[in-house]
């Protein structure tokens, strides 16, 4: 199955002057516990697609997030949207595994990787047509990420050590990105006002999950988030 073009879908959204939404599917998280007991990846993915999401993100990590590659496969098969595999990708074999499972993009977290390993994994991903979202939380990680040849820079508003979320992280870092990079704000985004606020600092794309998954009507909540 050919990759669907994760970065291209986000670039198309920004070219059309609309928020590039990466809508996330996850059952649980260390900070929130169980988020959605009636978790149905097919129904949720279709709700997101109907509401205007540009891409999907699927948690495949098991111990902390109760996710699996099966969730990713189901969500991707149910929609035409490109899909990010959201996991702790630490070893090159996981890059190949992601492609085999149908992922269109992988997440590389700079806090968890050496520069050498991040570069190695990026090269493998590019060789097998996977896009890469590189995640940072502070200015030092951002400088390391900018040395990698990928346009997608995820700015995580959640401190992975304390689990505290602060939108000021994006407000501080996004304006410092060069124009050839795409700032993806992650975590703590709940309203259309949040998106407008972060967009003012230069974020054009937004990864949102928990605030949508807690709503009874996910499609309506996603439309409200996008302001449509």
Automatic annotation (TrEMBL):
The keyword Amino-acid biosynthesis applies. InterPro entries: Aldolase_TIM, Indole-3-glycerol_P_synth, Indole-3-glycerol_P_synth_dom, Indole-3-GlycerolPSynthase_CS, RibuloseP-bd_barrel. The keyword Lyase applies. It is an enzyme of class 4 (lyase). It comes from the Bacteria. Residues 4-225 form the Indole-3-glycerol phosphate synthase domain. It catalyses: 1-(2-carboxyphenylamino)-1-deoxy-D-ribulose 5-phosphate + H(+) = (1S,2R)-1-C-(indol-3-yl)glycerol 3-phosphate + CO2 + H2O. Its EC number is 4.1.1.48. GO terms for biological process: L-tryptophan biosynthetic process. Pathway: Amino-acid biosynthesis; L-tryptophan biosynthesis; L-tryptophan from chorismate: step 4/5. Keywords: Amino-acid biosynthesis, Aromatic amino acid biosynthesis, Decarboxylase, Lyase, Tryptophan biosynthesis. One of its GO terms (molecular function) is phosphoribosylanthranilate isomerase activity. PROSITE patterns: IGPS (PS00614). This is Indole-3-glycerol phosphate synthase. It comes from Endobacter medicaginis. The lineage of its organism: Bacteria, Pseudomonadati, Pseudomonadota, Alphaproteobacteria, Acetobacterales. The gene is trpC.
């Amino acid at each position: 199955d050919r990759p669907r073009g994760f970065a291209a879908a986000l670039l198309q959204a920004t070219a059309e002057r609309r928020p590039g939404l990466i809508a996330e599917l996850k059952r649980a998280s260390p900070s929130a516990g169980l988020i959605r007991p009636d978790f149905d990846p097919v129904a949720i993915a279709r709700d997101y697609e109907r509401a205007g999401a540009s891409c999907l993100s699927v948690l495949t990590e098991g111990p902390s997030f109760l996710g699996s590659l099966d969730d990713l496969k189901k969500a991707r098969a149910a929609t035409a949207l490109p899909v990010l595999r959201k996991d702790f990708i630490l070893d090159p074999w996981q890059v190949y595994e992601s492609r085999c499972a149908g992922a269109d993009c992988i997440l590389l977290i700079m806090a968890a990787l050496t520069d050498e390993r991040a570069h190695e994994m990026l090269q493998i991903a590019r060789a097998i047509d996977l896009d890469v979202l590189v995640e940072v939380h502070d200015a030092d990680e951002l400088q390391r990420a900018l040395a990698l040849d990928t346009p997608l820079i995820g700015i995580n508003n959640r401190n992975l050590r304390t689990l505290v979320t602060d939108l000021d992280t994006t407000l501080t870092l996004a304006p410092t990105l060069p124009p050839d990079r795409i700032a993806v704000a992650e975590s703590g985004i709940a309203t259309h006002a949040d998106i407008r606020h972060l967009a003012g600092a230069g974020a054009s794309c937004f990864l949102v999950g928990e605030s949508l998954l807690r709503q009874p009507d996910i499609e309506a909540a996603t439309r409200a988030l996008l302001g449509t």
